[in-house]
Amino acid sequence: MAKLRSPADLEKKRQQILSQRDPNKTCVTICSGTGCHVLGSDKVSEAFVKELSKNGLKGKVDIRRTGCHGFCERGPVVVIFPEEICYLGVKAADVPDVVTKTLVDKQLVERLLYKDTTGKTIAHEGDIPFYKFQSRIVFGNNTRIDPKSIDDYIALGGYSALARALFKMSPEQVLDDVKKSNLRGRGGGGFPAGVKWETTRNAPGDIKYVIVNADEGDPGAFMDRSLLEGNPHSVLEGLIIGAYAIGSHEGFIYVRQEYPLAVENVSIALEQAQKYGLLGKNILGSGFDFDVKIHRGAGAFVSGESSALMTAIEGKVGEPRPKYIRTAVSGVWERPSNLNNVETWATVPLIINRGVDWFTGIGTKGSKGTKIFSLVGKVNNTGLVEVPMGMSLMDIIYKIGGGIRKGKKFKAVQTGGPSGGCLPENLIDLPVDFDELTKVGSMMGSGGMIVMDEDTCMVDIARYFLNFLSDESCGKCVPCRAGIEQMVEILNRICAGQGMPGDIELLEEICETTRDASLCALGQTAPNPVLSTVQYFRDEYKAHIEQKRCPAGVCKALVSFFIQADKCQACQICLKDCPVQAISGAKNIVHIIDQAKCTKCGTCFEVCPQRFSAVVKISGEPVPAAPPAGTEVIRKKGKQE
Amino acid sequence: MARGNIKPAEGKVNTGVEKAAPSTTKIGTQEQEPNSVEKIIDKYKSDKSALIQILLEIQKQNRWLPRDTLMVVSKKLSVPLSQVYRVATFYKAFSLIPQGRHLFTVCMGTACHVRGSPRLLDRVEDTLKIKPEETSKDQKFTLETVNCLGCCALGPVMVVDGEYHSNPLSKELEELVAACD
After folding, report:
1. % residues pLDDT > 90 (chain A)
2. Nearest C-alpha of chain B: how many angstroms from A35?
3. Any B CB within 8 A of A331 CB
4. How far apart are CA A36 and CA A67, in angstroms?
5. DSSP letters spanning A507-565
6. Same structural domain, B175 and B137
7. Chain A residue numbers touching B50 (CB-CB < 8 A)
8. Is B5's Cβ below 8 Å from some Cβ in A?
9. How far is A38 from chain B (nearest CA, A)?
10. Is the N or the C terminus of chain B less surrounded, counting Cβ atoms within 10 Å?
11. Percent of chain B scored above 70 by pLDDT?
């Protein structure tokens, strides 16, 4: 492959790729993101290869293994183009049917289609509610691209924004566009990217760096990985454009080693871009030089903080430093370094190509564009969703997410990862953008959105996050190291039923000190999970402390499991599954839990068939006396509705 | 924190379960070709700033970082041994104790947590008879926790030697353990 020497070469290349592709040719795309991979997409794609040749369709139908489609709940996802027929939960055994019915006979395989609540099937991906209410401008191309093929990206107009920036715009104009677009950092802070770029551009020094932050450490968030795995060239194109605007000739992609597929796909993308002359010396004949190195992170949450990440790139321990001088002025090897999140970089080419007005037309007054969220937890449609800024929590959770699992009641939604907060039901109409979330005591963070139902204990959630942060605190500054540890101790005590009057106030006091005195964002935001749960769920804290009761039935020390004699159908499932043989009973004999033996693992509660619901959690009151051993079951009569 | 508390002064590792295994001991299949460490270092041209990358490759190949190896790294990169240890103990990816032949990883991410990962972890601990970050005495199993695997739709999720399992119950766990040789 000869290097592309001009924008005309790039366009010629694109036309050449398109001329070899028939837009009407059938293409089976198989999602190979982590979720679908785990659910067996490898086997599905093998099956397609086999079945196609069996049916004489080899060469007549393309197979494309793409990045994450987002609808992880119903994986493996298969979409057949050009009709955009979407099949969900496809197993290798379903593939012969799909090939003979859909590809040969042009009929739908009804059982694999999406069914709405009324049982009506939906064939087209775009019509499924999960996708219909999204605006997938950054994430959408994931479904159309083989991430290991630069040609796929170029075919969709990839790198045209780079050509435009290099040849039709001065670095100042690019910078100006990004500033005017008010693109805010997608990694958590929401700092305007253009302002940061300008600081680095104007900082003294000849050598400057641009960095992609793909050290996505927030538990429950995986949008950066999916973007980097599924469409690495979009991130790279944004990075090169940024480097041009800033005047940098060297860049880093800092990616967690826990994301091996992302490392692999980015490495391939860099190699391909080099070959095509889109990276390296004299990019597209413009005279602009730029190189990128990959740095794998070795697993430390705090290393995602900008100054810590830059220390890690130098090969040292990734601890934050005081930022009297911003990293934009003095970062890697004390040189001006501009760091942005994966999603921020991937948005840049769109702004350059489609214009500032288009971008600012999406979103709210202070937050423009779209944001990708990972919608997880107790929600029906788990997955990655991209929505315009300002969409309400209600719409995201119910319209796109399909509501709460098992028909339970919504209790809270946690946004912003360990630095964020829990928002209760009365805030569900809140429009989601940077400023609104901060106002109510949470934050956007990198975009994790964890839905919780009535079975979630908010004290336990606060304890979970503080535990996480206490593990991840680097220990350099005292308020964070000692403050978080003290809070964990108090929360542990409350969950163990040993809470004391005054604990809540003490927590609030420690929160204040930790927030005000910590060195970096980890400590400064660590109190958020505690403060937001205390603010919105104070009653739950009080129940733990004053009544020694866990209303959600989660905190082990405060909960007992009990089998209701009138409901038990003696199916023996819990009896067999109990890991400590604490359940006695037999066929037709009501099962009884030996409270002395019970370790409160909750297995019986989980396995008891929903139609019986005989196992209950009891908290804050004595466990009722068990029926005498040998009590016979009361059979439910006939079929109940 | 990396796994295993170290006491470099005594030249021994304190592993909690596998007590007093001298760091110089090479156990079972974990023996390493003598030149492979130097090869990795050469690949990075003995660049000091590549310390983390070099340790990652050694860890991947060897499944732990023996003291001897760290001394070689220190010498070849001209980085003080104390600094090499500082890096090796700071990051989670590194282990200063030998790892078991089978790795059980339980996801403790938020989504898995609300869907019951603490109970899953309890069951795994009971089945393997070890706690997180520990290795069984016979070097067969290592149990680890991870903060998010990004397959929240399957939560609570667990990985055994690269294979994902969604919320296995005690019986299924026993079958998984029995299948390990």
Report:
1. 77
2. 5
3. no
4. 10
5. HHHHHHHHHHH-SSHHHHHTTHHHHHHHHH-HHHHHHHHHS---TTS--GGGEEEEE-T
6. yes
7. 315
8. no
9. 6
10. C
11. 81
Q: Which two tokens stand for residue B26?
A: 């090479």
Which class would CATH give A25-81+85-123?
alpha beta
Q: At the top level of CATH, which class does the domain A370-456 belong to?
A: alpha beta
Q: Cis omega before residue A622 (within 30°)?
A: no
Residues 93-112 of chain B with CB under 8 A from chain A are 93-94, 108-111
Would you say domain A150-359 falls under CATH 3.40.50.11540? Answer: yes
Instruction: Please report the number of interchain residue pairs, chain A to chain B, with beta-carbon separation below 8 angstroms.
Output: 140
Candidate from A173-182, A311-320, B38-47, B143-152 with smallest mean pLDDT? B143-152
Same domain, B79 and B107: no
Q: What is the CATH number of the domain that holds B148?
A: 3.40.30.10
**CATH number listed for the domain at residues A459-546:** 1.20.1440.230
Domains of chain B: total: 2
- Place B19 in a pLDDT band, splitting at 50, 70 and 90: very low
In A239-320, DSSP assigns E strands to: 250-256, 291-297
| Whether B85 and B50 share a structural domain | yes
Q: What is the pLDDT of residues A310-368, one digit of tens each?
A: 999 999 998 888 888 899 999 999 999 999 999 999 999 999 999 999 999 999 999 99
pTM for this prediction: 0.89
> Does a structural domain hold residue B96?
no
Token couple for A375: 């919608």
- Domain interval for residue B82: 5-90
What tokens were used for A222? 């995986």
Residue A41 touches chain B, beta carbons under 8 Å: no
Substitution target in A257, A405, A554 with the highest count of B β-carbons within 10 Å is A257
Q: Is B147 on the interface with A (CB under 8 A)?
A: yes
According to CATH, the topology of domain A556-619 is Alpha-Beta Plaits (3.30.70)
Work out whether the CA dihedral A46, A50, A51, A56 comes out positive or negative: positive
